[in-house]
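Let us practice reading a record.
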Amino acid sequence: MMIKKFLIIVLLCRISFGALAIAKTDTLKLNLPQVVEMAKANSIAAKQAVTVKETEYWKWRTFKSNYQPQLALEGILPGYTKTYTQVQQPNGSILFQPVHYDNSSLTLNFSQSIAATGGTIYGTTQLQRFDDFDRNNVLYNGIPYGLGYTQPLLQFNSLKWDKKIEPLKFNESKQAFIETQEKISITVTEYFFDLLLAQVNLNIAELNYSNTKRILTIADTKFELGKISKNEILQLQLEVLNSQKAVGTSKRDVEIATLNLRSYTGIEGNDRIKLDMPAVVAQMSVATEKVLTEAFENRSDAIAFVRRLAEARRDVAKAKGENGLKATLSANLGFSNAANTAFDVYRNPKNQQSVQLQLSIPVMDWGRSKSRTKTAQANEQFITYAVEQDMQTFKQQIVTQVTLFNMMKEQIQLTDEAEKIAAEKYKIASERYVLGNLSITDLSIAFQENDRAKRDYVSSLRDFWGAYYQLRYLSLYDFEKNVKITY
């Protein structure tokens, strides 16, 4: 019998511990930093940012490849033909003769661009085989090797300008990725406080409902003793109904806010989410000069200022380079040969050289060249002014945000004190009403002030952390750890 009791106790303990374990897994407790990291890792916005980052990386790799040696193998294998073709006779007449041949070739080309001059060094080796099936004849032609150089003269050098602008674009894209991550922090902070405020409102509503019912019970006793009027009872009954309605509304708001937070952060499962009230980093100091310095060092906008000016100067150089005299100098040298066997092509090849200067001079364009240049110069001036204006706006936005952040630090201290005072006042009012020396109106006022103070404190926390993450976004600097933000 004792053994049976012992086994039953053990079984009940196991069931109890199991129930506790299940209860623990039913609630997912999260704080603000955890929610921010989840959003950065799992949100659709974060995945899109990673995709954009990869796209920009491969664009950068494509740009870099333009300055690397290029090696290409080209060929016609086979080049078989069997048809009739026109052949002009010595007397000028045309006869259609049958042809049946294979003309195959294989070429290996090498090229290297020179960014400083815009020219190109190239090399080639080629072997060609011609099979005449009608005459049972085979011929080989080839270039054992050849070297050449092509140099545009007095023209726009796109390689030189790309070498200045493309690194700026790549660095801009890297910083833009970090900004996107910080933008996610700002967005998810809003969702976090939406749910936190909904949970606080639900706690307030449930507490008010419980307290109002308790006070109504006491009031019923007072009414029976003739100490309070029927009107006061009716007022309390109305308060109970309103409190009960507030509980239902708050539960609905919690469900909506939870769904929004789950959807954005990618939190899966059906566990109830319970958010911790974030603390305030009171010792954190933010100076305007520090934020401005970090912003101009880290933000993609700061890099974009330099890039936009460089692109405007490039467009002017392009407009000038495409006007007036255009010339291209080409020169090559090497060896070539023809033979009846492939091996003989490479035996005692003959020298080959060529030099060519190609010119293009506009004689009359009715001011087109001048107009293109003036347009590019005017656009450069416009972009210069636009960049100056954007820089002023950039600075002002940072100065304003630093001021707001420091104001939020002071404001949250005041709302914290107000919340404590309102809670104490509410407690005293409840006790005084029970003792009978406080009216129902004054009690309702104490209720409302306490509720408002709690909501104001959460709103102050929202403003503080929203301003903090906005500062991180504007400067790409972590003011808690005093380090630049990197990913």
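A brief commentary: Residues 1-25 have pLDDT under 50 and may be disordered.
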